[in-house]
Structures are given as structure tokens and as C-alpha cells.
Design brief:
disordered N terminus; 5 helices; about 15% strand; 5 strands; disordered C terminus; about 170 residues; 5-stranded parallel β-sheet; alpha/beta; about 35% helix
Length: about 170
């Protein structure tokens, strides 16, 4: 939590672990350094997304099908984005080793092949990559929380929840 007192202290987020600061009501804030932002530009250029290109990150999550939106629905979404927004590139991302098979299956189901990130990135680099995206589409997982903390427009698919569990999305 933030320090008590008349003035809230300015904190260097990069020195903190975890990377989020929560006040009450919860207001997550996440900063990306210039160094990481430059890394993201170069990395994206290497995989075919140029620095001025607008792109959407799609994170389908792990193979736990009961927790995720159907793979064919993600493939259809990718195709619809390609048709309706031809200048918007699509980057299919994995946030963990267990998610690679899910991403691969979606990739092969999509008619318009997205760019795909199949490797694990250090957290700072993963955050900077999400920061470069125009929109982040994800299941209810870490990338959706990171995108919200970065202030990115985010579409999150929630799994079928137990009736006793109540999850509220971030406002805005």
C-alpha cells in the first residue's frame, strides 16, 4: 500500500517487486522504461511488426479448455480483425510454456495467419511488448492484468466461474 501522510510519496516502480502498487480503491499503475520500450520496438521489427505498425496482442492462455474461450473462436476473431482492420496486425502471444500448444493450434486454425510469439520473455520485456500494443485481448490471466495496469484498451474473456466466486473487471 502507499505510505500514509499528507503527501503520497513518488515511488520508483522499477525497484519494487511485485511491479504493482495498489491504493484504495485499487488503482494499479505500471511504468515501462525507455530501455524496455526500445527493446520492444527492435524485437517486434525482428518478427515483422515495424515500429509504426499498430497491432493487437491476443493471449489465449493455457490448454485448460474449461477456463478459456474456444480455440476456433480465437481463430475466427483473428480472421475478422484481418478482414475488418487490414492495417492492424495481430500478434498471438504465449505467456508460458504450457500456452505454446494452444497458440499453435489457434495459429493453424486461422485463415489469415497472425504473427506469433512462441518464446518465453523476461517479465520486463513481456510488459514492454504489451505496452506497444494498441489493444490486448486475453483470457482472465496475467497479461490482462498487466494490460489494465498499463492503461491499454483490454478485452478479457472470463471463464465459467463458480457461483460463489465474484470477479469484477477494472473500471474503464
Amino acid at each position: 500500500s502507499l505510505p500514509h501522510g499528507e503527501h503520497k510519496a513518488k515511488l520508483n516502480i522499477e525497484l519494487l517487486n511485485p511491479l504493482f502498487i495498489f491504493a484504495f480503491p485499487a488503482t494499479p499503475v505500471l511504468y515501462v522504461s525507455k530501455k524496455e520500450n526500445e527493446w520492444a520496438k527492435k524485437y517486434l521489427s525482428d518478427i515483422g511488426i515495424l515500429p509504426n505498425d499498430k497491432f493487437v496482442c491476443i493471449n489465449p492462455g493455457s490448454p485448460r479448455t474449461h477456463l478459456n474461450w474456444p480455440k476456433q473462436s480465437y481463430a475466427t476473431l483473428i480472421d475478422n480483425i484481418a478482414v475488418n482492420y487490414p492495417t492492424l496486425k495481430v500478434l498471438l502471444i504465449c505467456n508460458g510454456k504450457s500456452e505454446v500448444s494452444t497458440a499453435n493450434e489457434i495459429y493453424w486454425r486461422a485463415i489469415r495467419k497472425p504473427f506469433i510469439l512462441r518464446e518465453m520473455l523476461p517479465l520486463n520485456n513481456f510488459i514492454s511488448l504489451l505496452n506497444r500494443a494498441s489493444v490486448v485481448i486475453s483470457n482472465y490471466s496475467a497479461p490482462s492484468h498487466i494490460a489494465a495496469a498499463l492503461g491499454k484498451p483490454t478485452i478479457t474473456f472470463y471463464p465459467a466461474l463458480e457461483s460463489s466466486l465474484i470477479i469484477k473487471p477494472y473500471p474503464g
